[in-house]
Amino acid sequence: MKIFKISFLFFIFSQNLMAEDVFHNSLVGSIQGSGSGRITEGQIRSIDLVNRTAIISGFIYHFGPATDAQPLQVRMLGKDYGSLEMLKVDMHVEVIYIQEDQHRVGKKLTQINESEET
């Protein structure tokens, strides 16, 4: 019974990842020809690590799967590295993103000092 439960949970998890990949790929596919990235600064209001999204100054940003060919780049303040999991609510960040209609797909997040935010 325990093996069945683990197998079932693995199946559900893998289905969720595949659905996320399909959504991200279709969204990014529709954006490819629409031009260059945009840059903005803001404060992180919430982070959803499971769905890889965040609300930054009132806008929802999608970050796509970690297995993406061009995954999200994260840089912590004063460092050359970072990860989505290292970010915290109330941090100030600069976001480079691409946008199609209401969707913002984050490509790079860099933590900044609060005083640097414009």
List keywords for this structure.
118 residues; alpha/beta; OB fold (Dihydrolipoamide Acetyltransferase, E2P); five-stranded mixed barrel; 1 helix; 35% strand
Could you explain how this protein is built, in words?
The chain has one domain (2-116): OB fold (Dihydrolipoamide Acetyltransferase, E2P), CATH 2.40.50.320. A five-stranded mixed β-barrel has the order 1-2-3-6-5. Residues 27-31 have low confidence and may be disordered. The chain contains one helix and six strands, in the order H-E-E-E-E-E-E. It is of the alpha/beta class and 118 residues long. It is globular, with a radius of gyration of 16 Å.
Number of helices: 1
CATH class descriptor name: Mainly Beta
Strand order of the largest sheet: 1-2-3-6-5
- Enumerate the spans where pLDDT stays under 50 for 5 or more consecutive residues: 27-31
- The radius of gyration over CA amounts to 16 Å
Q: In percent terms, what proportion of residues is strand?
A: 25-35%
| Counted beta strands | 6
CATH fold-level name: OB fold (Dihydrolipoamide Acetyltransferase, E2P)
Q: Overall 3D geometry? A: globular
- CATH homolog superfamily: Copper binding periplasmic protein CusF
Q: Give the topology string: H per helix, E per strand.
A: HEEEEEE
